[in-house]
Amino acid sequence: MRALLQLSKRIFSSSSYSSLTSSRTFATLSLFSPDCNGAAITTNGNVYARPWLAIQHRGVKVNAIHLRPGNVIEKSGRIFEVVDAEHKQRGRGGAILTLELRDVDSGNKQTLRFGAEEAVERVFVEERSFTCLYTEHESVYLIDLEKFEQLEVPLSLFGQAAAYLKEEMKVKMQFFDGRPLSGSIPKQVTCIIKETQDRAATPRYKKAVLDNGLIVQVPTYVEAGEEVVVNTEDGSFVTRANK
């Protein structure tokens, strides 16, 4: 598997990529769309293997209170991804849900309020598994090892979790009408402690710098050079990695 990933990385990044794609050895098709968040997908072989405008099943009506970040809704003929959701109780006036939404086509964000029981049309997205090849500048390069399809998307689709991306990491991508909406990584990942703070912040914990540059609180017994498991949702220490 490592050899396959190394080959894919060389093909994706090498200057000889264009000559390879012009030959019969590795026939590929790169599809670019200005409204796809800057994403490009490379499909092995057939032009019709994965068209951008795939048939997408619409969803069902749900109460706004059930919406979560990452969900996709349709409102006023536009498709939005839920970026953040905040629930507030307003006494006798009932609960209000404030949603931060991102327009899938334009990328623009806006904030809307809904009643907790207000009906909203949620649409379903396609989720696919990829393996991370590498990151470069503001992009991450992925590969679907089952279909041997390569995908380039902005790091921003992974949000703050982008800092944890590394070669060979298994990730999930969510698509709507063939367009990448967002990416997610495993809830727990293994990182290396690069350095620790000499003086503990508390009697039990001290600050440590990970190999990706992030700072976490670790137990005082953890030292530089050790591998630790980190919760990617809140950046907290979980345990020492098994050796």
Automatic annotation (TrEMBL):
Keyword Kinase: no
Keyword check for Protein biosynthesis: yes
An annotated GO BP: peptide biosynthetic process
Residue stretches making up the Translation elongation factor P/YeiP central domain: 127-181
Molecular-function annotations in GO: translation elongation factor activity
Pfam families: EFP, EFP_N, Elong-fact-P_C
Residue intervals passing through the bilayer: none
UniProtKB keywords: Elongation factor, Protein biosynthesis
GO CC terms, sorted: cytosol
SMART domains in the record: EFP (SM01185), Elong-fact-P_C (SM00841)
Ranges for domain Elongation factor P C-terminal: 189-240
Similarity annotation: Belongs to the elongation factor P family.
Record-given protein name: ELONGATION FACTOR P
